[in-house]
Amino acid sequence: MKIDNLEILNGLIAGAEGGTVEFKETTGQLERGMETLCAFLNGTGGTVLFGVTDKGKIIGQEVSDKTKRDIAETIRRIEPFATIDISYTDIPGTNKSVIALSAEEQRYMRPFTYKGRAYQRIESVTSAMPQGIYNLLVMQRGGTYAWDSMQNPGLKISDLDETAILGAVRGGIRGGRLPEGSMQEDVRTILEKFDLLNDGKLNNASVVLFGRNFYHYPQCLLRLARFKGTTKDEFLDNQRVTGNIFNLLDAAMAFFFKHLSLSGKIEGLYREEELNVPYKALRECCINAFAHRVYHRPGSSVGIAIYDDRVEIENSGTFPPDITIEKLLGGHNSEPQNLIVANVLYKSAVLESWGRGIALMVNECRRVGIPDPEFHTDGNAVWIVFHYTRTTVGQDPTAPPQQPYSNPTVTPQLGKLLSAIGNNTLSAKEIMEKTGMKDKRNFLKNYIHPAINSGLVLSLYPIGSKSPQQKYYLTDKGKGFLQQ
Q1: Exposure of 265 in the CB half-sphere (CA atoms within 13 A)
Q2: Helix, strand, coil proportions of the chain in percent (round to 5)?
Q3: 468, HSE (Cβ side, Cα atoms, 13 Å)
Q4: Taking the model in full, what pTM does it have?
Q5: CA 210, CA 207: separation in Å to the nearest integer?
Q6: Where are any strands of DSSP class E within 68-185?
Q7: CA nearest 239: which of 316, 306, 160, 311?
Q8: What pLDDT sits at residue 408?
Q9: Which residues form the Schlafen AlbA-2 domain (predicted)?
Q10: CA 50, CA 27: separation in Å to the nearest integer?
Q11: Please, are residues 385 and 310 in contact by the beta-carbon 8 Å criterion?
């Protein structure tokens, strides 16, 4: 963009410094200016103005032949070759000018470097680009879009969880995103249609979505923590779970139900249960974290931290280079980093494909009267913060409290189960050993399922799940009955 008159110049300055505009007083700051221009090239483009203070005041500078040679020399140090427009706007009544270096978006040539180093722009801050983001842009430029599409010749279909695959298909059929006949197809055909199997070879996305063994995929990790108070000084609960996306999502939601207060409000004839933060908002946030995170760094993960006043959900990576936080909150097209993973989650009716997940989170928080979620990134990670208060969600805090646990009456079977679990988190086998029961079918039908349906017990994974890691623990309601 040519910036060769004061009207255009004043229009740029009026917008202040940000994701696409930077002010420098003189070309004495040419090095820092070129780093920022490199960052703009790695994003959606932008302009660096020399002769403008950081407050937006035009002061100009004298432009000599040496100034022009220095600018030309520094531009040659940007690689690969980039198209840069150089403009000079004279300041009336002086011998000074404002120098503008502008770069349009050149996304198919990214990543760009200046003196061998890549830079990125986040809001009004220019910083060195993390190697993970640099590698991702290199893969995009080379035609291999992402880590999830890379084949792993050592993988076999037997390494995947067939139950999880068929569960995803059932979800897609229920959501109207897969045809009814999909359940009649064999697993190999399903994997091929999901773009997880090509020429007999499975790709990395197949493990992320449906894997069973994660020895070679340590990044398929979820960190869970409940802290006492509002700082990280003391743990109340600390867990690490490895698994595929569907298992990790189950584990995340179970952790929320374990540690966030459950309360209710009356809607017509029905009582509707709410967490401190709406579970739909938390679930959508977790789905986005698993779907859009960076996977090619072995030490990366998703983290959930619950405090007395907030929930923080963090994942490795950053927002797409072309999407600022303003665009994120104001409506945007979905640009997943992991196309194959996102496509399977969409077909399984787990993930939205139209960029509406952010709006869902915001609307859910507004519905129950808590602050909008906050979205943050530092170029290495993205984290979302949900603030809440300890008062009951959706209820009048001035209303007199109900007497807890007045209904229903606990049967002898449920009493026996509650006593066996106590304050522990136990597997079915461990509970049966403590109660002396032998018949697992009878145990699940007459003890576990009624306890879950009564809100006395929660499972780490959804009821009916065949996960070998399945365990059970008491809700606050169950602990109340146990004390009685």
Answers
A1: 15
A2: 40, 20, 40
A3: 5
A4: 0.58
A5: 5
A6: 78-79, 85-90, 97-103, 113-114, 119-122, 125-128
A7: 306
A8: 42
A9: 17-129
A10: 6
A11: yes
> Which position has the token pair 């929660």?
458
> Rounded CA gap, 365 and 370, in Å?
5
pLDDT at 57 over 80: yes
pLDDT in the model for residue 449: 82
pLDDT, tens digit, 9 for 90 and up, residues 172-184: 998 899 998 888 9
Under 8 Å between Cβ of 207 and 217: yes
| Fold annotation for 412-483 | Arc Repressor Mutant, subunit A (1.10.10)
* Mean pLDDT, rounded, of the chain: 84
Average pLDDT over residues 15-26: 86
What is the DSSP track for 410-425? PPHHHHHHHHHHTTS-
CATH class of 221-387: alpha beta
CA distances (Å), origin 326, targets 15, 18, 54, 359: 14, 11, 22, 13
- Determine what percent of the chain is predicted with pLDDT higher than 90: 46
Q: How far is CA 201 from the centre of its chain?
A: 28
CATH 1.10.10.10 positions along the chain are 412-483
pLDDT in tens, 143-173: 555 688 888 989 999 999 998 999 899 989 9
- Partners of residue 434 on adjacent β-strands: none
* Fold held by 6-129: 3.30.950
Is residue 456 within 8 Å of residue 478, measured between CB atoms?
A: yes
Q: How many CB atoms lie within 10 A of CB 110?
A: 21
CA dist., res. 372 & res. 360, Å (int): 11
Q: Are 254 and 461 in contact (CB under 8 A)?
A: yes
Please give the share of the chain, as a percent, with pLDDT higher than 70.
85
For residue 385, give Cα distances in angstroms to 214, 310, 392, 457. Answer: 29, 7, 19, 28
Can you tell me the distance from the alpha carbon of 187 to that of 163, in angstroms, rounded to the nearest whole number? 10
Residue 479 in tokens? 């602990």
Q: Which residues contact 131 (CB under 8 A, 6 or more apart)?
A: none
Average pLDDT over residues 440-460: 81
The CATH 3.30.565.60 domain(s) of the chain lie at: 221-387
What pLDDT does residue 133 have?
Answer: 82
